[in-house]
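ok here's Condensin complex subunit 3-like:
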Amino acid sequence: MPSDCKTVREVFEESQRGFQHHGKLIRCLKRIQNSFSSEEEFRECFLDHLRYAMIVFKREPAVERIAEFVAKYSTAKIYYEKAPEKGDNISDDEDDSDSEPTNPFLQFMFKFLLDCHDAKDKGVRFRSCQLINKLLNNMDDDASIDDDIADGILTSMLKRLKDKIPAIRIQAVYALSRLQDPRDDDCPVLSSYMQMMTTDSSADVRKAVLMNIALTRRSLTPVIGRTHDITEAVRKVAYRIIGEKVKIQSLSIALRVQLLQDGLNDRSSVIQEVCIKCILQGWLKSLDGNVVSLLKCLDIENSVDTAEIAVKALLKGMMKEDLQDQISSLKSDTNQSGPISIPYDQLDCETAFYWRCLGEHIKSLGVEGEDLLDLLLPEVSVFCQYVQGYTEKEYSSIPEINEGQAMPQTFVAQQLLLLMGVVDLSDEVGRKRLGQLIHDLLVSPFIPESLVEVLLSRNNEVQEEEEARIQELVEVIADVRQPIVMVESTLSQEEERKKELQLATIKVKLMELNDELENCVNNQDFSKAAELKQQITEIEESRNAINESSASVSMAVREEKDDPVTLLKCLTIACQMLQITTRNGLNPTLMTLIETLIIPGVQNEDPKVRNAAIKSLGLCALLSCEFARKHLVLFLQVAQLDLEMVQVTALQVVFDLLLKFGLEAFKLNPNKDFLEEEKLISEKEDKNNEEQEQEGGEQKEDGDVENSTPDNTATSVLTILTGLLESESNDLRNGAAEGLAKLLLSGRVLSAKLLSRLILLWYNPTTEEDGSLRHCIGVFLPVFAFASRTNQELVEDAFLPILKTLFSAPSSSPLASINSNNVAELLIELTNSKYLNKNNTTGQSTATEGCSHVSLALKVANEVLSDPQAPGTRVLCKVLTSLDLNGCDQTSIKDLKVLAYKLYDVVEESASTKLLDKFQKNLDHMDKTTDQDATNEQAVGEETTTEGSHDSSTQSQDTQPPNDQPTSEADHDHVPANQDQSKDLDNQDDTLSDSTNTLGNRENAHETVQKEKVISKTPKTKPSDRKKTTAAKTAKSMSTAKAGKRSRQKITSKSASTIKARLNLSSDSDSDIEIFDKENYVFQ
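and the structure:
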């Protein structure tokens, strides 16, 4: 029991049993301390027992309890209490005025721990930092220590922040947390914390810093940066700290949006939940639960996707009563009954956005949300009237539409049109009213082209028949392009002259009649005067009729508009219409649209109009292969000569056409080598300026060139697309890399040298800042390589050219800084057949799955043998030790062993020879395993044969061919066919190596087996003696050549592929990394 402890040892032993008796043990140890003759004697005894715990680095529970007990005892209040003497009366005021006494034992412990913090033993350093942390944490908030000790703690713990052990750094971080000064901009603790958050290699250390750092304006930016940490636990702590300690008002709008975007789109669902609970709901709670107020704190016009995810995350899981409260919050009048009708002057961007999100969420509830949907939205006709009224009110006051400026009216109108997709369109009257609204808005000159997409999406719901929809939209385009205007007609010059003569005659006649009328009045001849008056009235009526007939007449006519805004709107309508068109071919309506709108738009001066026209023309080309073939050259010219924005669009169009129709649709012969054709074409051009020295051979080449001339269009396409990988424009280069990757992934093009270019572009230091390019190629490589065994063979073909390019790169080239070992490791992983997708593996790939790296090992070995002193020999030798050769057949292993001995003879570098030793040991181990398995199988087979010899012999005569004949004609012809194929797959300069370096013929295959029997029994000799032994073994194995004739006729497709892999693929032209060559250019 704690009360029975009489020595320091017993107290320490009892303290490690649990925390519940630490209070009693503290009082017991205090009594023991008082029993000592001196304070120094107790301290020495105390430290003697503490040292046993301080040397334990592992966090044992018993040691942790001792550390906690020591911290509690050192900071116990018994050291601060003063027992008043009898008879002394001390008032409260006097007691408060006395200065707080110091704790001598605590000061002693601090000094002892500071002396131990720099020990060599990691356990002592760890426990020293841990105890300092516990001592500081167990002190009261108003406690104080000497300045010298505080400075010592600061200096020593800052030093421990750089300790090589992460656990020690963590305890040092905890120990320094109470020594921060947020008001000091030059605080060393804060500076060290901010540096460790971004540079420390341990995730636990970064997490500890996040949990202990004081948040200031200076430290807030590094804390927010930890939301991008690679470790999930660190990101989780960062979001939790920001949500708990940072108010939304302390962050800029950009930071608010960035936090929500990163957290809600994080790849980990745990981080998404923490972002919703800690940040999103925390901000909403600080704004009294008003979602619209929260949206006003975000830039929703420029971050629609992030705001939509945030609102849907808040609405997810809400009860029906809570959703009713959210609907009621949108009403301008709390006493309003029926569906929501927000006044136009109160309808801002945030309210319209939340209205739309709430409607989509209730729509997703299905039957349960039908009654809520009736409260949220009116009928279709009423809501159409509401939308039309808003657009007429807001856009009529805008004199001119500026497409470069985002207007709140456009955003609100877009949200209302998106909300229109929630309403029930089962009512035919409502459908017609919605169709009329869409037509009026599309034709209206005030509606910008940014609303075209959402208008056409609503139109698809109204008009589902494709042909009728195309006809209607083409008519809409005609109405937008040629609106009806009122024109006043005027008279011609001749008509104007005739009118003047008539009026002049009438005027003279009126003057005469007026004179006669005056005379008659003077003579009092009133009867004649009445007649004259009647004539004057008739003439004046005729004069007025002439004047009215000559007035301007207003006529309704169509006036064609060619301004960029109108053309861009028309082309946008055409683009959206063509994107949802599924028909094949171009009907007369679309052909008319192409001739009247799209083709003239390609020649327009405005780049936005040209861009939209190129996109529309590309969409039309996707509907017709013949149309695509006719306009391919136009797209290529635009991709090379126009502005960057238009070039990117044209480049995307070209890749889309190649992906859909394939290169064979553009008259490219897949059986011809691209590089050979290009070479022949260039030779034909050069022969016009040079003398022909050889007439016979030259005529044949000229014939080949003429045969390849019709394919020049598609050949030029590939040349142009490949050349764009070196473009200075990031957008063009990224578009070219993405498109070529798609061609490789789809199987339209299979080229090892194109793959080499993409991999080198990915590793090139000049593309380090281009994150989109690296992400694209980084995702493409594993997906492409693991899709099929054919793709892995393509990577194998690119293996050596890539490494040779890196080896031969000059020091001034950016490729010289690439780590060749890293590249080789990646390529080895990509060619490992165990990562193949099981759904895509074929029977052939399954058959060779166990020995996927055999051919690659032979290629690498032959490359080293061809030039042992070449740069990169060490890397290639390391590649041999990293290859996965498990599951290889015995013949392949023996071939590799012979090559390994030859490599050992010619390679002189010590590091490379060590790697070759390791390679030989791996081969020896696999050879023994293979021999043992073969022996076991042979023994089992002999037992089975003995039991049923009669039946087996009868069956074998009926089903198996004799040993001295090939199994079939296909097997007999398989090896030459593969040899021819391997020649097609490699450059014409590739040749079989001689018999001293390779095993490239079928006769040496059997000799290798006999040779290996001698080698396996011979102990390893020095390099100088190995040449003699190898020669003797070779001579001995030659005697068995005749015995292997029959067995050589049983070469299967697997051994044939091994022979093909023995081809010496090294040539001087491989280092140039040409893109398309004969062995790889395959079309499907």
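+1. The mean pLDDT is 77.
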